[in-house]
Amino acid sequence: MRWLRHDLRRMRWIAVASVPAIVLAQTAAAQVAESAARPTGIFNSDRLGLLVALVLICGAVVGCILLARTGRPLKIRKLAALEAVDEAVGRATEMGRSVLFVPGIQDMTDIQTVAGVTVLGRVARTAAEYDARLEVPTSRSIVMTAARETVQAAHFAAGRPETYNDNGIYYITDEQFGYVAAVTGKMVREKPAACFYMGAFYAESLLLAENGNAIGAIQIAGTAEPSQLPFFVAACDYTLIGEEFFAASAYLSGERDQLGSIKGQDIGKLMVAAVIVIGCALATVGALFPATGATGAVDALRSFLGG
Amino acid sequence: MLQRTIPIAILSLSGIILMLAYFSPLTTSWGETVLGWFNVLAAVAFVLGAGNLLRVNLERISAQRSGWAYSAITLVSFFAMLAFGLLKLGAVPSEKHPDKHFAGAYEGPTAPYGWMYEYVLSPLTATMFAMLAFYVASAAFRAFRAKNTESILLLGTAFIILIAQTAAGMFLTGWIPQDSVFAFLRFDSMKIAITEYIQTAGMRAITIGIALGVAATSLRLILGVDKSYLSKS
Q1: Residue A74 region, left (φ>0) first, then alpha (ψ -120 to 50), else beta?
Q2: Mean pLDDT of B174-189
Q3: Do residues A117 and A241 both lie within one domain?
């Protein structure tokens, strides 16, 4: 058994080094799918509007990061779901039960899994400080590896590296419902006092959350899958909705650079709102006064933005 | 040191290349190269996952910890599928090369591998999925309690959609002429108004927020501002 553990530890480093590349591989897959009708030339002019939007939004994020570095005060509203992490882990410690963290069912190619693993760092740190038992069943082996690195880093940050044990972070199966069967079975048998669901979820979201509700666990969820949000809101105590989930990693870090990026995100939102208002105004004018040519302007705007 | 620097360098490089590849057709093939890397990594990851599965379950069986019987079943199933799949045991001989064992088909239900997939794994998966109906009912029962103003609004909206989806909607309000001023009181009209205007607007707001969140998170990773996924050891 020891040889197997040793080999797996060596492979872990290779897998972690590979995590960043696969985060972006999904984008590459989409590009390859488009390659059949691939335009030629230095620049694809059909995507000019998208490039402008990208530059503006990325510029706002980078600008706010630089502003934050100058020491400018940043006001970020509190996220109740993240404030409740201490309460949930503390409750598990008092009850002598485990903390369950489910990082979704997608691979590290999904940005939601990356965000989930970041939240795991905070949960693991609190669990290390309270000496609570943390269980992280994963449905992808690279997620398991990344989760182990994150939890180990959290134990170091908590000043308790000796309490780190990678047995609580394990791989089950890639099969969606096989994974759910294993996790819900474990929930029913071991009754964790706190359950965290952070990542990409599909049909299994309600199966997990309802089982957690049935065993009386404190439940905190976060996902960017709009179709699964209602289920989490109905069954969990706290839910990070969409952008809150992505802001969570920056919020938890407390670093000025990362908090600045949330401000940049808000500026991006203002830009989008401005475009929506302009579009609505033009469409309304076009409908009321067809002679003004506002309808043509709406079509041009839509075409420019790639719609 | 290298354990943190190398992944960040790979991430930044890949991110920049992929952004370039999206906008410049000249660099599109670079994206394909990254996809090739992913396939290699996925193969490594499979060994990693299978190794961990074996270790966790063998340890549980050898220590006779609670639930060790489940581990035994897991391992038996794992090795059975692996053997029948890899060695193509019981595969249907190929018409073209009947004398070559590994040319045979093993995916169909007549071969043991396909049979296990079709008649063991698929029904088990379908069973888990079917349980969702009961969980939806229990979650809806809890969510639709009229506790405060928000939940009353939720209950009212759900009631309208539910009635409009059934024959009762037409039975109760179908007699209102569609061209009258009271047409908005028809359940089917209310359903369209709720789903096409209120729900779509809300959903788009969430989707725009998600898109901006993805952009900001990706940028934090590419710039190396967010390093929380890496070990500090």
Answers
A1: beta
A2: 92
A3: yes
